[in-house]
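RECORD TYPE: inverse folding
INPUT: structure tokens
STRUCTURE:
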């Protein structure tokens, strides 16, 4: 998969919603976006990233899991211009969807983390551990959330922390990369 090409053709958070979401879906994403808050420590951590990161998210505006997680990625990207998050629609880019299949399924959101020169560094997605724990504890409701009701504050904070942890993991990988350290002289 040519992730660099996919990233170059992908859309920013707002443009993705404008192109792929209905007004009702946009309202759902906005409700979660408005609830996402980063702690001062999280903002400081993200603001201190020195390596450029390209983060490509395969999503669906209609998907409840995307509604509950992609706004977090939007907030993360706002903390540092070196964190570039772009989105592609799962159904509009079937080749990206197939390349990021998990457990033989086309789950979203699915993220591929890339270096500044678009080398794959990691993948993450579907649902976070906190979400799976909550689903297991509840054992009620649909298997795939609708996004109509935003997640509770405690779950949203846990999911936000897990996503930030993934961004930090990749940033540290990039920061410690011998190849990139030689390139940047650090």
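DESIGNED SEQUENCE:
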């Amino acid at each position: 998969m040519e992730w660099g090409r996919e990233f170059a053709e992908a859309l920013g958070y707002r443009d993705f919603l404008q192109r792929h979401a209905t007004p009702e879906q946009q309202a759902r994403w906005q409700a979660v976006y408005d609830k996402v808050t980063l702690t001062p420590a999280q903002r400081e951590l993200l603001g201190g990233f020195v390596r450029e990161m390209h983060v490509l998210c395969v999503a669906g505006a209609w998907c409840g899991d995307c509604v509950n997680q992609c706004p977090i990625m939007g907030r993360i990207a706002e903390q540092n211009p070196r964190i570039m998050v772009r989105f592609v629609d799962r159904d509009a880019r079937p080749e990206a969807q197939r390349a990021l299949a998990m457990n033989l399924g086309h789950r979203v959101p699915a993220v591929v983390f890339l270096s500044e020169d678009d080398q794959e560094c990691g993948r993450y997605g579907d649902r976070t551990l906190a979400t799976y724990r909550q689903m297991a504890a509840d054992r009620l409701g649909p298997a795939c959330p609708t996004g109509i009701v935003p997640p509770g504050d405690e779950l949203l904070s846990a999911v936000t922390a897990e996503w930030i942890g993934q961004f930090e993991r990749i940033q540290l990988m990039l920061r410690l990369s011998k190849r990139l350290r030689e390139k940047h002289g650090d």
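NOTES: The chain has a mean pLDDT of 93.
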